[in-house]
Amino acid sequence: MPQLHNDAGSHVGDAASNRAQKKRKGRPKRNHPDEDEDEDEERKREVEREKKRRKKREKKRKKEREKNQWQENWGSIDQRRDPISRHRENTEAASPRI
Q1: What phi, psi does 17 have (nearest 5°)?
Q2: pLDDT digits (tens, 9 = 90+) for 22-78
Q3: Which residue stretches belong to region Disordered (predicted)?
């Protein structure tokens, strides 16, 4: 007897069987109601986990942006200049020379 499909789900068999299999593929079979509830609970937990992951990633990104911003503004401690000279440089660069 020929095997119509293997465990991985790839279809092996005659063309008519494949067409019938593709038609059935669109309709999910209904599980037992308890199994549906379990799946719903699992889906809800997965959504919550994903929300937490996203929140953590966003927090890390924000921290990284702040760090980069600080480095752009101040650089390393050795390169840091006093705020008055920084202000003078910024205003000179912004105002046109006459």
Answers
A1: -65, -40
A2: 666 666 666 666 667 788 899 999 999 999 999 999 999 999 999 888 877 776 655
A3: 1-98
C-alpha 92/C-alpha 82 separation (Å) is 16
Residue 7 gets the label, from left (phi > 0), alpha (psi -120 to 50) or beta, of alpha
Beta bridge partners of 11: 5
Closest CA to 71 of 60, 82, 79, 59: 79
**For residue 97, which amino acid is it?**
R
Closest CA to 87 of 76, 77, 73: 73
